[in-house]
Structure prediction request, 286 residues.
Amino acid sequence: MVSASRGFSLVELILVIILLGIVSTLSLGFLRNGAEMYAQSADRERLLSQSRFVIERLTRELRNALPNSVRISSDGRCVEFIPLKFAGRYTELPGVNAATALDMTFFSGQSNSVTNFSSLIAEGDFITVYPTQPEHYYSKSRTLELKAATAVAESSGQRVTLEFNSATLIGFPQASPNQRFFIWDFPVRYCLVAKPAATNIYLHDIYRFDDYGLLQQLPQVSDLGSAAGSLMATDVFFNPSQSLKPFSYEDGVLKRSSVVHVVLSFSSNFADDLFFNQEIHIPNVP
Prediction:
């Protein structure tokens, strides 16, 4: 007698299909969770990297800003300041000592080589003496434009004389108590610019602007287009109705330097925002 060959019954096939479905569902869930964890980790790393970059870059530049040169826009979305190119001490000052040019000595520890000094400045740079408010830079009320620098050999070393690019040399209205002067070219500005076609109207990008000239009015986002600036960071959340502004400024007092408050909230794609509250101290001794 020959036995009949056996196969799978319908019930067994259904059980196998159900078990395979359960295993596939668990495997897909595990893979999906792993992919989501990787995406969140990558997004957090991106957010942390760009936020640290812009905060550290802004902090370093502001700490090298000229005394009393910081200006904040009325809405708190822009901070403007003037980077320092060179600082020194003078011996004679036009308009105060009736001199026709500015004789200068270097700070201790800096090279007294006119070649090194000339490499730092250029025709068209500005020199300011005793700036106690931003208008002394931006309105040029205590500022003159440089034309050239020449050196005169003396027994004690070299005396550097600065010439001014002005048809009528008016001079400086007030001398510095410590005989300080500051040389600079143009301001720098960091602004929050609304993201184009963003689904969230409160998302902004941070742009850095330079080489845009000298503007007397307070900085505003509308003054400069984002195409003229360098993108520094993205996805910064800012609601104009909130009490904390991205940038604010406190004037220096006798016992404290000037302070720029930076409050930035970087938005994540996974509702895991990163918040920075930074105080940047700027020397305010003119």
User: Anything to note?
Assistant: Residues 86-184 form one domain. The longest strand covers residues 143-154.
